[in-house]
Amino acid sequence: MIETDVVVVGAGAAGLAAAGRLQAAGVPFVLLEAKYRVGGRAFTDSATLGVPFDRGCHWLHSGSLNPFAAIADRLGFHYQRHPARKRRLFLAGHEADDATRDAAGAAIANAFDVTIAAGEAGRDVAMSEVIEVPPRWKRLVDHWTGLMSSLPPEEISTLDFARYRDTTENWPVDEGFGALVVAAGAGVPVSLGVRVRSIDWSGAGVVVATDAGDIRARRAIVTVSTTVLARGGIRFTPALPDDLAEAIEACTLGHAEKIVFRFDRPVEGFAPTSYAEAYEPDEPGRAPINFVVNPFGRPLAVGHVGGRFSAELSRAGEAAMIDLGRAALADIFGSGIARRIVAATVTTWSEDPDIGGAYSSARPGKAAARQLLTLPVGDRLHLAGEASAGPFYSTAHGAHLSGLAAAEWAIGRVGESPAGR
User: 415: which residues sit within 8 A by CB, 6+ positions away?
Assistant: First the structure.
């Protein structure tokens, strides 16, 4: 049996940060990852379409506060630091005029403003209870709540939403955010393809059972997603405290996926890293979709769907997702765009057994759950990840910061033997 001070489970942004901090402090650790790659939901794919794009997180959210901005500067990565750009809206195959686009934008902004106001007033209710949306824009607002929170309005806590810290600075990473996360953790040793089956924390310390054998440690930092934990992907002995288990269930992941097309060349008439949105107000069965067009000048259109629409499309399968994307591209660029498509791919985060969705949002009435996710358990366990990141939840930098916090907890207890349960 291997023995160490700390076992870190999961090598996404949180696990890499935790392990890197332990390494810097000279604390013995083992970092385990079920997949044969690191990064988790930070995944830059350069192979599938021949040019890099992020299957997961892409923007440095709240850029001026984001620790990955300084990391990118240190490692020579590049990002676009620019104000929000005009998003072109296409309705039923025609570009909306300024007044229509502004009306749609106002409906979306008002829904978010009313939600934040309710949360700041201390109300922990469903977003759907406080917003009023003109019928023409209801599905578009639902789409945007899905992009922002990965859930539909009836499943979003107003209080949790209001607590999210957002400077509105969203800086895309040229080489890919996933590549940045991997580069940031490049010096950290990790055991890939090792799946953790159970964690016994009944005695002094923990015993972590894996497919490659057992590991005994003083403490464990667990960074797998809340959905994996809620589904019982890791068995705990004894079971996690009831209040923590309820908090995990209250902050499981929603749905957000991408539909990505490569063209024979960049699309004319759109500057590098342009934004376009296709919406059919009179077709209830057709999901809205946002595209990043010609990202960094590359011949791509990266489509985003979220919330209920993403969940429905995931169940329908890859072919249905690509069909939706093609129809939306035709609305934006005309039917001739089909001849320009060289390849296409979709993401499947909701179907990934090691992830189980997009990012976390607390359900109505459950905003307090986040605090429980940031606290150690029995002086032997500590959760980390975007769901445990307080006001920076749902982001890679939030996961990174939560990993650092968990590592500091472990470092502060070096030499201490955890008491038995």
Answer: none
Q: How much is the pTM?
A: 0.96
Identify the H or E element spanning 214.
Answer: strand 213-222
- Which conformational region is residue 192 in: left (phi greater than 0), alpha (psi within -120 to 50 degrees), or beta? beta
Last residue of a domain, one of 305, 322, 351: 351
User: What are 41's two structure tokens?
Assistant: 């939901």
Find, among 302, 74, 327, the residue nearest to 172 by Cα: 302
Among 351, 369, 394, give the residue marking a domain's end: 351
Neighbouring residues of 138: CB distance < 8 A, sequence distance ≥ 6: none
- Tell me the CATH number at 19: 3.50.50.60
Considering the domain boundaries, does residue 176 fall inside one?
A: no
Half-sphere exposure of residue 360: CA atoms within 13 angstroms, side-chain side? 36
Residue 416 lies in a domain: no
Specify the residue for token string 């934990």.
229
**221/341 same-domain check:** no
Considering the domain boundaries, does residue 310 fall inside one? yes
Which residue is it, tokens 């988790």? 40
CB-CB contact of 388 with 226 (8 Å): no
What are φ and ψ of residue 48, in 5° steps? Answer: -60, -45
Q: Do 31 and 188 touch, CB atoms closer than 8 A? A: yes
Task: Give me the domain span that covers residue 325.
Answer: 85-167+254-351
CB 256 within 8 A of CB 358: yes
Q: Is residue 412 within 8 Å of residue 251, measured between CB atoms?
A: no
Output the tens digit of pLDDT for each of the chain's 421 residues.
Answer: 889 999 999 999 999 999 999 999 999 999 999 999 999 999 999 999 999 999 999 999 999 999 999 999 999 999 999 766 678 999 988 999 999 999 999 999 999 999 999 999 999 999 999 999 999 999 999 999 999 999 999 999 999 999 999 999 999 999 999 999 999 999 999 999 999 999 999 998 999 999 999 999 999 999 999 999 999 999 999 999 999 999 999 999 999 999 999 999 999 999 999 999 999 999 888 999 999 999 999 999 999 999 999 999 999 999 999 999 999 999 999 999 999 999 999 999 999 999 999 999 999 999 999 999 999 998 999 999 999 999 999 999 999 999 999 999 999 988 677 755 4
